[in-house]
Structure formats: C-alpha cells, structure tokens
Design brief:
The structure is a single chain. This protein has helices spanning 12-23, 35-44, 94-116, 155-158, 162-184, 237-243, 262-274, 292-302; strands at 3-7, 27-32, 53-57, 79-82, 122-126, 189-194, 211-214, 217-219, 258-261, 281-284, 288-289. It is α/β, with parallel strands linked by helices. Strands 1, 2, 3, 4, 5, 6, 7 and 10 form an eight-stranded parallel beta sheet that branches. Helix 3 (94-116) packs parallel to helix 5 (162-184). The longest helix has 23 residues, at 94-116. It starts with a strand and ends in a 15-residue tail after the last helix.
Length: 317
C-alpha cells in the first residue's frame, strides 16, 4: 500500500485515477475545493473509510502556499499525482482564469513537496496534447508529434483568446515543472502524462528525475453523477450535443483527431508513479484516431429517433 496525494480529486480524469488507486489498495488523500466536493466523492466511494480516502481543502490553487498544508500527512506521502488545472473556455481573464492556476498551481505543489514532504519520491503531472501540438503545424501529415516536441506558443499569443490561453497554460506549466526539477534538484522524480501515445509505450520508459502525462480528447464514463448536463467535461460535450439534437444540420469539426479512454489514462498515471524507469519522462497517451462523424454514427445507432446530420467533420485523410 502506498500513501498518495491526488490533487483536484473531483475532476473528470482525477475521479478515475482515484477509483483505480483505491481499487489497487492504496491510501489516498485528495484535494478538493469545498466540503460539498468531498461529500460528493464520499458518496461515490462509500465503501472506503477515512484510512483509505481522506480530503485536504485547497480553495484556490493559484494562491501562494496553497498546498503547504495539503502535503503534510501521517503516514507520510510517497507519491503525488497532480491533476488540478483548469480545462474550460468560460473565462473572462485569460491570465487569471487559465495561466495563473495552471502555472502557479504546478510550481506551488512542487515547492510545497520539496519544503515539507521529503518522503515523496514520485510526482506525476497531468499535461495535455496542447503542450505538444502547434496551431501553426496543425494536422500536417508531414509532421509527427511526439514527447520530444513542445508547443512554440509565446506569452504574447497566450492572451489573444481562450483557446490560445489554454494551450499556453499547459505548455508553460509543464515547462515550469521541468525547470523546477532541473534547478532545485528535489528528492522526488517527475513524470508528465499527455493524452496521446499508446499506453503500451509505458513499457519503454527511460530514467531520470521527473514524469509527466499529456492527453488528447478524453472520453469515458462520468462519475460522480452530474447535477446537470451543463457540468459535463469538455471532451464529452460533443456527444451530449449530438444526443440533444444540436447537430441536425451539420456535424461540427472534430478538431483534435486523437482520443483516449479516461480509464486507460488513469492507469497510465499510476503506472508512471509505480515504475522507477518512468522517471524524467513525458508520456503521450492515446487510443488512436476518431472523428465526430464516427461518434455521430454510434449515437444514431443507439438513439434512432435523434436527428443528426450525415455530412461534415470528415475523418482526415
């Protein structure tokens, strides 16, 4: 059994990471913003007592010292899996709503671990395909994206619009994490996880002092139960819109053409923490290609009474 701190535990991806950790017998403390979020998770996993599932309250990850208390535990933590970061475009201030929470939240937890949690040996951070992809290159068939590539977005481009702000937030936050490890030489290793290369690539990890995960679009089951469909995670909203008949005239563009099942992504985070050879690596996790047209075909088959367009969003050649 390993004692694990999981940040952002009520998030779409984090809940599946939490479920997998608990199923494997680990003891988890997860950060949440409120008592209501904690109660929601208690109701979702009622079979686990306080010894297996506990909570730390972090109202604003962009505040200096936000994680200082959360990293303290008895028994002490051995792993930290940091998933907390904004992923939405309902913002009014790109810096305040996207850049600061992502960057300060990431560096803040690393500082807190180094300062107050010397027992932590493994840190895994959820990154994004946005930290790898480039809007200038897009889906150019002559370019192959991999963990070696960085999004070249600039600070000036970051504040142009919410989409650029999100891409920049993931890029800058991950770069800040690697820079922290390089300069501070902490007692823990780091890995980052992206939603984009096959999970099997986790068997070919190298060694170093940090790990990070970078995913593409993330589909899969939702829990805890949604209060309203408006709170559905961003990736799954396109499926909701089809089911509600919002794509009767045309299927909207697919955008990113790669996807991953949220349950596989959760397992990737845990594998990155478990395996010493994962240290210092970026992992681009994906199940392959998809298109909105394919999703529409499935929805049409399951819900024949729902009208969905039969044109648009062609699978890229």
């Amino acid at each position: 059994m390993t004692r694990v701190l999981l940040t952002g535990g009520s998030g779409f991806i984090a809940v599946h990471v939490l479920e997998a950790l608990l199923a494997q017998g680990h003891s988890v403390v997860t950060t949440v913003r409120s008592e209501a979020k904690a109660q929601m998770l208690k109701d979702t996993f009622p079979q686990y007592g306080k010894d297996k599932l506990d909570f730390a309250y972090v109202a604003d990850i962009a505040q200096e010292g936000a994680f200082d208390e959360a990293v303290n535990s008895e028994p002490p933590f051995e792993w930290v899996i940091h998933t907390a970061s904004p992923y939405h475009f309902n913002i009014t201030d790109t810096k305040k709503d996207l850049l600061d929470p992502a960057i300060i939240g990431t560096t803040g937890i690393l500082k807190a671990i180094k300062k107050s949690a010397p027992s932590v040996k493994r840190v895994v951070i959820t990154s994004s395909f946005a930290a790898i992809s480039s809007s200038k290159i897009g889906t150019n068939p002559d370019h192959t994206y991999s963990e070696k590539y960085w999004n070249p977005i600039t600070p000036e481009e970051a504040i142009q619009d919410p989409t650029s702000g999100y891409r920049a937030s993931k890029t800058f936050a991950e770069k800040a994490a690697w820079e922290f490890v390089e300069k501070e030489k902490p007692n823990f290793t780091l890995s980052t996880v992206y939603l984009c290369l096959p999970i099997l690539s986790l068997d070919k990890m190298g060694t170093d002092k940090t790990r990070q995960m970078n995913p593409p679009l993330v589909f899969g089951p939702i829990h805890p139960k949604l209060q309203t469909l408006d709170t559905l995670n961003t990736s799954n909203q396109r499926i909701r819109d089809m089911m509600l008949g919002k794509m009767q005239d045309d299927i909207s563009p697919s955008g990113v053409y790669i996807w991953v099942d949220v349950r596989d992504l959760a397992l990737a985070h845990i594998r990155a923490a478990e395996r010493p050879e994962a240290a210092g690596k970026r992992f681009f996790v994906t199940a392959g290609y998809y298109s909105n047209r394919e999703i529409a075909d499935y929805v049409r088959e399951l819900l024949p009474d729902v009208k969905i367009a039969t044109k648009g969003a062609e699978f890229p050649g």
